[in-house]
Each structure stands twice: as structure tokens, then as C-alpha cells.
Amino acid sequence: MTDATHGPDAVTGVTPDTGLRIAEERHNGEMVAADGTPLKRSLNRALRREKLRALALIAPLFLFIVVTFIAPIADMLFRSVENQIVSETLPRTVIALEAWDGEGTPEEPIFAALAQDLAIAVELKNHTRLGSRLNYETTAASSLFRRTGRAADDIGEEAADQFVELDPAWEEPATWIGLMASEDWIADQAEWAAEAEAAGRDAPPERRFALRDGVAEALPRTADMYGAFARVIRAEDADSPTEEDPWPIVYRALHDDLMANPDAAASFEGANAQLVGAAAGAAPSFEVTGFRDTFLDIDEDWADPTIWGTIKAFSSPYTAGYFLSAVDLQLTADGVAKQPEDRQIYGLLFGRTLFMSLTIMGCCVLLGYPVAFLLANLPMRSANVLMILVLLPFWTSLLVRTSAWKVLLQQQGVINDLLVWSGIVTNAGRLALINNQTGTIIAMTHILLPFMILPLYSVMKTIPPSYVRAAKSLGATNFTAFRRVYFPQSVPGIGAGCILVFILSIGYYITPELVGGTTGTFISNRIAYHISQSLNWGLAAALGSILLAVVLMLYWLYDRIVGIDNVSLG
What we know:
Number of strands: 2
Low-confidence stretches: none
Number of helices: 28
Strand content: under 5%
CATH class of the largest domain: Mainly Alpha
Radius of gyration: 39 Å
Strand order of the largest sheet: 1-2
Largest sheet: 2 strands, antiparallel
Number of domains: 4
CATH architecture of the largest domain: Orthogonal Bundle
Shape: elongated
Mean pLDDT: 85
Order of helices and strands: HHHHHHHHHHHHHHHHHHEEHHHHHHHHHH
Helix content: 55-70%
């Protein structure tokens, strides 16, 4: 072996080749950079810096796409299956309904669970939202929950009056605190109150209410409802359970617990034990109305199994009910069933949307191809004038153009007047061109025609005229030269225009709403209705998801049949 001082390098000095050889010998054959770092590690570090720099450059665009495109689509997909309001608003009722067979009016325990859930929901003002959700599935559910909510505060009132008549101590918040609250919570509450009084300010927010040990076993219903009362009174009303009387339903829960467990007083000590023992002895003599009878007195619709079946069917936090409704099916307590015939509209709307979108696309091809051909083959001066006319609709409001078509197409409008004047139709036989599919197709073809002409023109402008002249010089007729030479080269423009027009038309809702009437509206009009008027966002999201899936499927078919690579904008 030779080195820089012994051997050939002693004369010539260190060259680049011998320098690399010496570096390899000194680092056990591993290549190193100029700073002595192994070359592999140095390259990895440089590549990592380049990737981070590239990521930093595209991060704003990526974030913009996530916020404005991906997140809304993800939210729409989630809303189409989200159904947590039923299970969150009626948790006890949902559990109680699991044993219900769906036949007839439910038994007393289910009504008792509903009374407890509604007492909380009314305080949280969630019962109206729940009614609106169930009203999407069962008509009149919203009004039923509103009427019941107005009377829910009185459920248990008769039990409360009898407890207070038995002993006025039951009316004191301190009595309930002594029975229900844990000693640690009571001590902390007293300490906070003393500090607040000394400082001359309101008491600081108390910690989460804690039940006394053993009370949940002795008085389970009462502990459940009083715990809910304590949490709601603090979170919603910013009050303390030490200063508020319990809800009437808490007294009714206490009565039911004492009837089920007459020995509940054994779980308490001192005055509390005496108070509970006296109440347990008197509870059998109390006159209370059953929950079932109470709800039927409020509204007889609670005897209808349909509303209970709807609650049970939509008790899961996630549901396929919106998607089923979007395809004219419904989710019932017995499973999936067809919607009534008078409510089967979405299949018709989807079919109509696809048919009219394809028709509008075809009309745009038939009308736009000659115009684009003319623009591409006229002298530049004339082509520029025509191009201005093509672009002119973009400078006019969509609402103005649609309103103009309403004036032109109505039975007493300009077009019908011209047809009558020319004798093509009689005055009594004026054509119905508005508030139907015909009006929608005419107006939307006019609005979307520039989106077909521009891609066609951009592609046709790149087709060399010499190709057609060469075909004619070889004996081809004008039609043959067009069919076999010119038209195949313009197909990419047709594909681009068709995709633009079809995608735009399938999602239009302003023009169909104004000129479509009852037979010319699209599925997008129904989506807009559910978003802005009925507020059934779940169904709107399901319809939008299905529409997105249909568009993606058609796009995939187009790619398989025509090929997306053949689409060109010139």
C-alpha cells in the first residue's frame, strides 16, 4: 500500500483520485464529504432540507384546499350519517325501548324514562330540536314534542306537593343537599362561599357536583335525576343547587324509589334517616298519576306506536336513514321499507336531473360546434367580433339572463307572439315554454353554451388547415375530409366541453328554480330547499353525497369509454 509520503504520490502530490482513495482508507472505505461527514448522511440531510423547503412552499395551497374543499366534503359526508341528537337527548328512553317489540303503546317504564329525559331536555331547550329531527321521519312529531315540552314542567308536581305537605323540609334546597351531595363537595362549597363573602364577590364556579356514597344504590332514580338537576342548574342557569328547589320530576323519582325500596332510610343517618323513613312510610298513600296516563292526557298521539317506532329506529348515533330517504326508502322499527307513493320523489328527481343535464349537454354540442368551427376558420378580424358576442353573456348577471328568458318564453311572451304572428300556431294554441322542462333546457343551454364553445374553439384553432386541404387534394369530398380528418382532431375539445357543461348543469339550481316550475327542477333545487328552508341538513348532505357519487361514476365511465387523456383545452 502507498500513501502521500511513500509511493507515487510522494512525487505527484495528492490528486482528486488519490484524495478519494485516502479518504476511503481513513474511514474504513466509507465515502465522506468535504467536512468529514459520511457522504450518505450528508446527502440524506440535503434531501431532507429540500423536501422540507418544498413542503413549506406548497403548505399554504394545501391548507387552502383542505379548508375550502376537503373539509366541507368531509363535513357533508359526516352530516349524512350523523344522528346523535336522539341518543343524547333521550338516553334513558333509548335504553328502555330496546325491550319494546314495536307493537301497541309502550308500557309504564318507557314513559317514565321519557318523562325524565324530557325534564332535562326542556331545561336545555333541546326538545324542539329533537322534535324537528323526528319530524323529518314522522309528520307532526315536532308539534308533539313542543306541546309536551310546555307541560313537562308539571310532571311530578302532585308528588312534590304531597312531599312538602308531609314535611316542609322537603322544600328546602339544604335538605336535598344533605341527602344527595357528597361531604367533600359540601365542604368545598362552604369554603368557597366563605371566601367569596369575605372578598365581597360572587362565589367562584363550583366543581362538578358529586353524589354522596351509597345514595345511588338506595335511591337510584332520585340520584340520577337530582344529579342531572345539579349539573343543568349550574351549567345553564349559572345557579347553585344549594339555592334552587329540585324539579318536580325529582320528587316523583323519590316517590318511585321509596315505593321500590321502603328500607332506603337505612342508608342515611340522623335527621336525614328520619326524614326519608317518614317519607317511605307515607309514600304508599300518595296519589300520583302514572306516567303513561300523564303523557296521554298531554297528547293522545303518544299512544301511536309510530312515534315510538321512529324514536327506536333512529336511536343510534349514526344512521343510514338519510340515505334511505334519499332513494325513496325509510327506516322503521321493523326495518327498511318503501316510502309512501306520494313521497317517492327523489328517484324521479335524480333521473330527471341526469336526463336534462345530458340533453343540455347535447344541445350545447349541436349549437356550439358550428359556432366554434366558424370562429376557428374566419379571418382574425371577423373572429374577434364573434368572440366578443360569445363572451358577452359572461358580462351579464345570471339572474338577469334567466329573468329575460321568463319574459321571452311565457305564453304571452315574445316568442309565442312571433309564432302567432307568423301563423305557425294559433292564438289559442300558444306553446307552454315556461315552468316546465322545455323552459329549463332552453335557458340553461343559452347560459352554458359559452362553456362548450370556448374549449371547442381552443382545440379547433390548433388544427392545421393544411390537413383538410391535403385530404381534398387526395380526392376526398368536403364531408369526407371533415369526417375523417377534421372531426377526429376536434374530439378532445368536445370531451372538455361536455365535461364542463354536464358538471355545471347537474349542479344548477337558480335557473331551474326560476323557469322550471314543478316539472323542470333538478335535484339541486331540493338540496337547496333542505338547506335553507326545511333545515334538514342530514338529508341534504345525503342527496349531495349521492349526487357526488353519481358524477364520479359517470366521470369514471367517461374515462373508460373515451379516455380522459383525450380531453384537451387546446
